[in-house]
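Note to self: keep these together.
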Amino acid sequence: MPHYQNGVQAKEGDLVFGKTCNLGGRFIVGTMMEIIPGSESCNCRVAFAEVLARPDATVGESGISYRSYDKTDFLRVIKPGFDYGETREFDLIARADGQKVAAPELAATTTAA
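Structure:
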């Protein structure tokens, strides 16, 4: 069974932090949807949500639209998504079953801008 960056076994339903294959190196926080045993590359799918400023949203794009707190015309869209990734590129944040885990060493996976 595939493992996360710190060697902990990956499980479906886990809350994770890391990079997927097709988002240009952007970090995400998401839920591990599927794990493909016996594969090292692109061995998982992770579901996540993006918050986009309305001008960045595609016309007709599905998602939840909402107005900013100060009631200006600045709209945002919460857009669900998923992408493929490699479990070894992710850190475990929390188990779906509530099992406690050690805090991930995020400093090791992020780089200074």
